[in-house]
Design brief:
This protein is of the alpha/beta class and about 675 residues long. The protein is built from 30 helices and nine strands. It has three domains: about 5-170, 3-Layer(aba) Sandwich (Rossmann fold), CATH 3.40.50.300; about 190-280, Helix Hairpins (Orthogonal Bundle), CATH 1.10.287; about 305-500 and about 515-675, no CATH class. A hairpin with a 6-residue loop joins strand 2 and strand 3. Helix 17 (about 410-415) runs antiparallel to helix 18 (about 420-425) and helix 21 crosses helix 28 (about 620-630). The radius of gyration is 29 Å and the shape is elongated.
Length: about 675
């Protein structure tokens, strides 16, 4: 069983990710699905008979292949043929969740249903007849609560049983292999006639079950189901002909006919297996009362902004105290390292490399690890408790008014962590228009890499107002994004955005261990980045500041000084026309954290020293203009590369680089020159 593969499938907001984490623990790895930049997670699932591979499929509502996520899930099930599929069903919303489960049963793959969020269902007065549900669907059903581990041992046992029955080599000696019988739904005479015609047109070498499944997939509009088969064009033409015939006979198309019959079947299951306690389920629930406040058309947006502002204030209030101690330790370490090197007889060049390049450069970034941890800690709490979904709902009204798809808020939200996965997340958008607009505005979402720059400059120049200043930058990024979307949506990509339907998950108390793990993983990613990529970048900056040999470190005669001299006049109208700022922005293209690393390397100091040195270079006004430039100008090289992969267009990639840089520069100049007009400095 060591090579067996089990797939984990389910709708969004069913607790699928929590269940995956609970089943695999820390034994996970993340990559991309072949051919697409969509995250693929897999882990080791421990069973009594041995470990198996658990693959977490993208969260989808169906296998209709109308989006990239649905296509990935459908292709995986069709091509990889996992030994079993665990489909996660929301016990509080059984009817909606069973649509995907029904499709899986039709495919003939061994299925185990994890009836998740069982505790919430009980609180809402919902009871499910497990035995009846198992009989109607022909599957094993296990009530689970992923957040506290309820039912997981039983779930592992059912998975092992399904694998053993489907694999003759894993069964008991001499035992017959149990074949998985697909669910055969009666679609009615007219639809069955069309399915039979499509199945008959398929090439030989298939079982009757395989033919029927491909016929259903084709009828549902999944052209990829038969792509690559001999005579694929003729099959699709036949499907189109049958669709026209069905539409004439039933007054709706073939796909709709299949969907309606499937929903009829599901409604029958729910009617027989589900019961509601009138005393518990009647009346207004706590969730509904709270939603009346947080999703209110007048209060929702101000409340969302207030929560975001509170997060940034908390990050500063707690993070600064920890960062001060960490910076002191790094400073002492740098001096101790320099003294030790001197005692060993090391030359000035090596000492400068270690103290000014490595420790000062990397340390100026690393000191903000506590802030990064806190930011993602609070963000994880908001996501786990269900509030971020309400934020998406509130923002939908604003985004649609500006011509942007409401679903675009999901990638935009991810962009606050990192723009790379947010660009990948645009694959959830079905229409090319909506996806392209979203791709072009995502780089304006302030990623976590920019946060250390914001924290240092805001804390140095704005004191107690630092949290508000950082908050204003995030709001500015969103404003530029939505205005850009408005312009693009009414010009280059004119047209109405498609409809946005979203489901609000139930409110839950976040699990502290899961929240700490999520925040810790992001902080460790930041630390690893500081120890590798940023380390290499600051070494490069130090080398340029030291060459040619014999010149004063970081002087105008050094290579970095000459580069800075070329850039300084360009940024002078924005208030930071000196070589260190230009060089920092130049190397910031590699990664935005390198901006601080460059300053630290050039000035030979860590975070505390930078806070003391920067007022000699910047005024509060020019510092804010610099932050505006850092926020908006060209995203890092990883984001540009991801954008190129997703669009497969050099034209739009060059446009992205040029447009973001131009917008950043123009607004930085506007802030500085406008501030001067009002007497600010």
């Amino acid at each position: 069983m060591s090579t067996a593969v089990v797939a984990l499938a389910g709708n969004p907001n069913t607790g699928k990710t929590s269940l995956f984490n609970a089943l695999t623990g820390s034994r996970q790895k993340v990559g991309n699905w072949p051919g697409v930049t969509v995250e693929r997670k897999e882990g080791r699932l421990a069973l009594r008979e041995g470990d198996v591979t658990l693959v977490d499929l993208p969260g989808v509502y169906s296998l209709g292949a109308s989006s990239v996520d649905e296509q990935i899930a459908a292709d995986f099930l069709r091509n990889e043929r996992p030994g079993a599929v665990v489909t996660v069903v929301d016990a509080t919303n059984l009817e909606r969740s069973l649509y995907l489960a029904t499709q899986l049963r039709e495919s003939g793959v061994p299925v185990v249903v994890a009836l998740n969020m069982w505790d919430l269902a009980e609180k809402k007065g919902i009871s499910v007849d497990i035995a009846r549900l198992e009989a109607l669907l022909g599957v094993d059903v296990v009530p689970t609560v992923a957040t506290n581990g309820t039912g997981l041992d039983e779930l592992r046992g059912k998975i092992a049983s399904r694998l053993a029955s489907a694999r003759p080599e894993a069964a008991r000696p001499g035992a017959a292999r149990r074949e998985e019988k697909p669910l055969a739904l009666p679609y009615g005479d007219e639809v069955e006639r069309s399915l039979a015609a499509i199945a008959k047109a398929l090439p030989g070498g298939m079982t009757d079950n395989e033919r029927r499944l491909l016929a259903i997939r084709t009828a549902e509009g999944d052209s990829g189901a038969v792509s690559g088969l001999p005579g694929a064009e003729a099959i699709l033409a036949l499907a189109a002909s049958e669709n026209a015939r069905i539409e004439k006979a039933l007054e709706y198309d073939l796909q709709t006919a299949v969907i309606l019959k499937r929903w009829d079947f599901i409604s029958g299951i729910v009617g027989q297996a589900l019961r509601r306690d009138p005393a518990t389920s009647s009346g207004t629930t706590w969730d509904e009362r709270l939603d009346r406040i947080v999703t209110n058309r007048f209060l929702g947006l101000p409340l969302f902004l207030l929560v975001a502002w509170g997060v940034f204030q908390s990050v500063f209030a707690i993070g600064d105290a920890v960062a001060d101690h960490l910076d002191g330790l790094l400073g002492s370490f740098g001096e101790a390292a320099a003294a030790q090197l001197a005692a060993w007889g090391a030359g000035a060049t090596l000492t400068s490399l270690v103290r000014d390049g490595v420790i000062a450069g990397v340390g100026s970034v690393l000191v903000f690890a506590p802030h990064i941890f806190l930011f993602f800690f609070f963000l994880s709490i908001l996501e786990d408790c269900g509030y971020m979904a309400r934020g998406a709902f509130v923002m939908d009204r604003l985004l649609r008014a500006l011509g942007l798809h409401g679903k675009s808020f999901i990638p935009m939200l991810l962009g606050f962590g990192c723009n790379v996965p947010s660009i990948m997340a645009t694959r959830i958008l079905e229409r090319p228009r909506d996806r392209m607009i979203t791709l072009l505005v995502l780089p304006f979402m302030s990623c976590a890499a920019r946060l250390p720059v914001f924290l240092l400059f805001s804390g140095t120049f704005f004191g107690e107002r630092a949290g508000t200043v950082v908050f204003s930058l995030y709001i500015l990024g969103i404003a530029v994004a939505v205005l850009t979307a408005k312009v693009l949506g009414s010009t280059v990509f004119a047209g109405e955005p498609s409809q946005f339907v979203m489901e609000l998950p139930a409110y839950r108390l976040p699990k502290l261990s899961a929240t700490l793990r999520a925040a810790g993983e992001r902080a460790m990613l930041f630390v690893r980045k500081a120890g590798t990529f940023i380390f290499g970048a600051v070494i490069g900056v130090w080398l340029l500041a030291s060459l040619p040999f014999g010149v004063e470190y970081g002087s105008a005669e050094s290579l970095v000084g000459r580069l800075g001299a070329l850039l300084a006049p360009i940024f002078a109208p924005a208030g930071f026309g000196f070589r260190q700022a230009g060089v920092a922005l130049f190397f910031g293209f590699l990664a935005k954290e390198v901006v601080l690393g460059t300053f630290g390397t050039l000035l030979g100091t860590g975070e505390e020293g930078l806070a003391a040195a920067l007022p000699a270079l910047f005024t509060p006004l020019s510092a804010y203009a610099f932050l505006v430039m850092t926020l908006l100008y060209v995203p890092c090289v990883a984001v540009v590369a991801a954008f190129k992969r997703e669009t497969n267009s050099w034209k739009w990639t060059i446009f992205l680089v040029a447009y973001t840089t131009l917008v950043g520069y123009a607004l930085a100049v506007a802030v500085y020159q406008g501030g001067r007009l009002f007497g600010l400095s």
